[in-house]
Amino acid sequence: MKQLFETIRWEEKQGVAWITLHRPDTLNAFTRQMNEEMLQALKIAEKQDNIRAVLITGEGRAFCSGQDLADVDETMKHGDILRMYYNPMIEKIQTIEKPVVAYVNGVAAGAGMSVALACDYRLVHERATFIQSFVNVGLVPDSGAFYFLPRMIGTAKAFEWMSLGEKMSAKEAERFSIVTKIITDETIEDVETFVTKLAASPTKAIGLMKRYLNESFHHHLQEILELEAELQSIAGGTEDHHEGVQAFLQKRIPNYKGK
Questions:
Q1: Helix %, strand %, coil % for the chain, to 5?
Q2: DSSP secondary-structure letter at 85?
Q3: What is the per-residue pLDDT across 143-184, written as a single tens digit (0 to 9) for each?
Q4: Which of 140, 167, 225, 241 is deepest in the core (most CB within 10 A)?
Q5: Mean pLDDT of the chain
Q6: Alpha-carbon span 9 to 22, nearest angstrom
Q7: CB of 63 within 8 A of CB of 107?
């Protein structure tokens, strides 16, 4: 699988696809090639039944510094670049019916921060920082930032961070519930433990939760109640549900298959 990619690294471990942004000399800044390879890797992870969870991280001292300005095609409008390269990647992170974890190992700036926000969980090193850096080059946030950030921290604080372009520490991000877990040098093994545990979970049910959670913003209570009934019928017919019940009755650890 590794030979398919040049700007990212792919590794499969215990049911987890580890996707590492691999342009450390540029703090893993996005190029069109990296966008395309990220999307391709996510599609592979989506299709492979043996992949039960995905982890995205960065090589070296950064998670992702956003767009590589040296790679911008001046003949294209910024909006077209987003439509062609960034939006499909963000949409795939959100729509893949498997848990996606970001391990933010260093700075996450601009679209790099947006990628972290698009993931389902964010494990964040204590020295990592977040920054909505768009305003510092006269641009507006993109790659889903307008969708994810205000839902996580509220519109007032989201506007502050977007408009001021100031760094946010890992601890500050944790205080505003952006962070799932703080990682230190001493607890670095917790990253693998976390994603491996996720991969061993009933990922079919997790995928259903992920598919419809955002729908809750667009429906009335009665519609959500009916949707829950439909989803529960699907979940109740899975092998994982049967295994979970049997494991509970037999007082043993369940062996979920994601089916």
A1: 55, 15, 30
A2: I
A3: 999 999 999 999 999 999 999 999 999 999 999 999 999 999
A4: 241
A5: 93
A6: 6
A7: yes
Going from the C-alpha of 100 to that of each of 18, 46, 93, 185, 207, the distances in angstroms are 10, 11, 7, 22, 10
What are phi and psi for residue 141, nearest 5 degrees?
Answer: -60, 150
Q: What is the pLDDT of residues 82-117, one digit of tens each?
A: 998 999 999 999 999 999 999 999 999 999 999 999
* The pair of three-digit structure tokens given for residue 111, joined into one six-digit string: 């679209």
Residue 119 structure tokens: 């993931």
Listed residue (78, 70, 65) closest to 29, CA to CA: 65
| Distance set, CA 122 to CA 1, 35, 55, 113 (Å) | 25, 20, 10, 11
Please tell me the distance from the alpha carbon of residue 97 to that of residue 207, in angstroms, as a whole number.
4
* pLDDT (0 to 100) of residue 57: 98
pTM: 0.92
Helix (H) or strand (E) holding 104: strand 100-104
Q: Which residue has the tokens 């043996």?
A: 50
How many Å apart are CA 158 and CA 142, to the nearest integer?
13
